[in-house]
Amino acid sequence: MLEHPQFDPVAIHLGPLKIHWYGLTYLVGFIAGWWLGRIRSRKPWSPITEVQMGDLLFYIALGVILGGRFGYVLFYNFDQFLQDPLWLIRIWEGGMSFHGGLLGVMFAMWWYGRKIDRSFFQLADFIAPLVPVGLGAGRIGNFINGELWGRATDVPWGMVFPQAPDDLARHPSQLYQFALEGVVLFAVLWWFSAKPRPRMAVSGLFLALYGSFRFIVEFVRQPDPQLGYLAFDWVTMGQLLSLPMILAGLALVVFAYRRRTE
């Protein structure tokens, strides 16, 4: 059995200003995505230039932050918002939803695509391989904060999280998600997108793989206490939101290759 290191969630103290590790992990994700995006933008098939990559990152950052926060409030904790509306803007207290952030990024890409006369899927296929970098960084932030822990377990690497309401060893599900949603997803998408693929194929593969990884990890991740299990004592909100992603992703991949064949 392991003990969580109990990191200080504040990375830097500058008088009254506190810079949290969670915020820094988002910054690392954005910077790494921008750097990798500039590399991809030099390819002859890239839909954007290196200069446009910086502009696109700005739109995506807005989509991640606004969509992620609104999604968390809507999908996971709407009651708390009704009791304390200002909680919506206190992002530093935690509470971001990937599925909400995804919707925000999709809207941002559509919006920016209209400005530069590019289709939604041109930008989506370009951006999809960069997203796992931010996902992986965010999961490290969750682990540093000691939040989003897993269910109780007796595996040798089970970890006791002081923030949990008991002293039970739990799955370090944040690290599982870092490995799957961050490392594995990035490796597969970067390799798959290294060559020109039918339009929508890269986006579809991203949706199908992320949805599958998230659906699987939810079996060992502790559900949000305000929601619990939605059905059958095992279905969680994360699984409910991930299932449409899997189906939509598979449909996009099939459609992309069928259209190319025709």
TrEMBL record:
This is Phosphatidylglycerol--prolipoprotein diacylglyceryl transferase. Keywords: Cell membrane, Lipoprotein, Membrane, Transferase, Transmembrane, Transmembrane helix. Catalyzes the transfer of the diacylglyceryl group from phosphatidylglycerol to the sulfhydryl group of the N-terminal cysteine of a prolipoprotein, the first step in the formation of mature lipoproteins. NCBIfam families: lgt (TIGR00544). The keyword Transferase applies. Belongs to the Lgt family. It is an enzyme of class 2 (transferase). Pfam families: LGT. One of its GO terms (molecular function) is phosphatidylglycerol-prolipoprotein diacylglyceryl transferase activity. It is found in: Cell membrane. The keyword Magnesium does not apply. It comes from Marinobacter zhejiangensis. PANTHER family: PHOSPHATIDYLGLYCEROL--PROLIPOPROTEIN DIACYLGLYCERYL TRANSFERASE (PTHR30589:SF0), PROLIPOPROTEIN DIACYLGLYCERYL TRANSFERASE (PTHR30589). A 1,2-diacyl-sn-glycero-3-phospho-(1'-sn-glycerol) binds at residue 139.
